[in-house]
Amino acid sequence: MPHTSSTLFDVAIVGAGPAGCTAAARLGDAGLRVLLLEKAKAFPREKPCGGGITARALTRLPFTRDLLREVPVNALSKMYVESPDGTGFEYADPHGDPILYLVRRIDWDAALFRRAGARVSELAMGAIVTGMVTDPDGVTLTCASSSENPDVRTFRARVVLGADSANSVIARLSGLRTGEVHGQFAVDMMEETPYTQLDTPHRDRVTLLLSLPSSYGYGYIFPKQNHINLGFGSGPDYFVEHVRGRAKQHHLGFVEQMKARGFATGESHPENYRAFPIPISGPLDSTYADRVLLAGDAAGMVNAFSAEGIYFAMVSGDLAADAILAAHRANRFDARQLASYQAAWEREIGPELRHSVAIQRRLFTEPGRVNSLVRRATADPELKSLLCGYSMGFSTYEQLRSHMARVVMPQWVWGKVTSKARALVGA
Question: Which ranges of 331-408 does DSSP label H, i.e. alpha helix?
């Protein structure tokens, strides 16, 4: 017989990652009866991720300052950017201030979980949501411990927040994500290994290879305090055709390439290899329904250009908490009431998320464009600052586009004209 909780929770949050824990802590502090459901059986748990916290998080979400004191952090003020033809440049914050705080997700998520766990009414670990039924009075969630051990539990809540990763069950069960997902996700393949085994001579900077040869896509090296995190992203079509089933061999090839170029030393450890999907198509068209909201990766809230997701997860969790608190004050949980959530995130982070998709599609499908952009940035300090600033979240798409329209495009057009003229004269 299924175990049924007798408590009607004010909110059930599915997923104890950055989005879910941010919302859970806010709502618990506000006095709501919060149920936090997590499919992992215990924390800390592994979560493959680059683990970059951009500096803007410390201002937008002040509690991150305390969390960064709890975990090992490498605070970096420099980054190196390279194009497919090998052109590269280094950028350093002019004041030496950190632009990125590198953490291990196993540490960061555990700190967030401790913070949320102290504020919620109930934690349900090892809870895999298998069913969701919405009725006029609330939502019933059915959970199993695992496919091998279907220890069924059911919970009731007035509203549900789905923060359960890119493969969100809540997004599917609510009808907010439908159809074929192929093409909506990139695959990020990475290794996180102690420096005693695999190292980089550039522990003081982030290394971004904006577009590797077609077999890889983009690459990165993130030096943590005690570990190196390096990997590459692949588009869905290439992954299915060439990588799936041989992913570890591809990763070893990438590491050997990095070693040959002097970006890494030591040996890869395949047991530390992980792969995970990243939403690259922008936020879902709708992130709310009757008694349901979606946040973080579950809602597609990842910067498709930089692959940054932690900041957007925490911001969307915070905004979802605002909407849930307003719904409780109004004692209304229908889609019309919860639409305020979508309006809030559209204002704050929507433009960046949607513009990132356009940039990603223009750049990563045309290596020549990346080459041209990076070459120009090496000779244009303002473009360099804006390009790096956009990838780290401290300059906007509008600023980058304005500079491109005002300076870069006229130079490009003039270069084309003079090149044509030289060709005609030569003929």
Answer: 335-348, 350-363, 367-379, 381-392, 397-403
Amino acid, single-letter form, for residue 199: D
| Residue given tokens 């590797």 in the structure block | 212
- 298: Cβ–Cβ under 8 A, 6 or more apart, which residues? 15, 19, 162, 163, 164, 165, 166, 168, 170, 171
> What is residue 423's predicted lDDT score, i.e. its pLDDT?
54
Closest Cα partner for 306 from 397, 183, 193, 238?
397
Going by C-alpha positions, the residue among 252, 256, 254 that lies closest to residue 269 is: 252
Handedness of CA 340, 344, 347, 349 (dihedral sign): negative
For helices 105-117 and 63-70, angle between their N-to-C axes, nearest 10 degrees: 120
- In the chain the domains, ranked by start, together with CATH numbers, are 3-49+107-181+284-353 (3.50.50.60)
Over residues 339-381, the pLDDT tens digits come to: 999 999 999 999 999 998 888 877 777 778 888 889 999 999 9
- CA torsion angle 424 87 48 247 (round to 10): 70
